[in-house]
Design a protein that fits this description.
By secondary structure, this protein is mainly β. The chain has helices spanning 2-21, 136-139, and strands at residues 23-26, 44-49, 54-64, 68-71, 82-88, 92-101, 105-114, 118-127, 142-147, 150-155, 159-165, 168-172. It has one domain. Strand 6 and strand 7 form a beta hairpin.
Length: 174
Amino acid sequence: MKKNTFILAIFVVFVCLFFLSCKRVHFAFPYELRAYFPYVENQELTFVNDSNQTVEARVLKVETTEEYNMPYGCKCPDWDTQRSFTFESDNLSFYGLMSTEYYSRLDISCKCEIHGEASNFYTKFFEGDPFSGNFSSIIGDTIVMENNGDKLIIIKGKGITEFKAGDIVWRLKK
């Protein structure tokens, strides 16, 4: 009888350890979508307008949700991932965010402020599963966001290539 009790106790301990070690995977922000904001920290960006005025900015921060494990019993936020960036200078500040909502859509938002000239907030969303592996085919290579007559253009592999703030159009200098 003692042998059966000992075996049962060991079995219970192993089952408990198994369930305590179980984790669920929290996915990383999809790699195929990172190309729309391909920035790296300390990258220099220069934008020029039709009057040949330039605005230079440095990428200060880039954050991306990476894959990690959560315990099954965790009351943590579930399944949303994001990629964000901030770049600024004395004359320009930009903040951008791409975030996934579960498996149903991708939200993109950008806030642009040109000191002394204009400030604008752009937002757009795409329905579908951002984790499908071919979601960029739904988005296309170019994303055009508009707000009150102002426009922002994002090109896959280049990032923000053009934005209109007030009456002035700024284009990324190559």
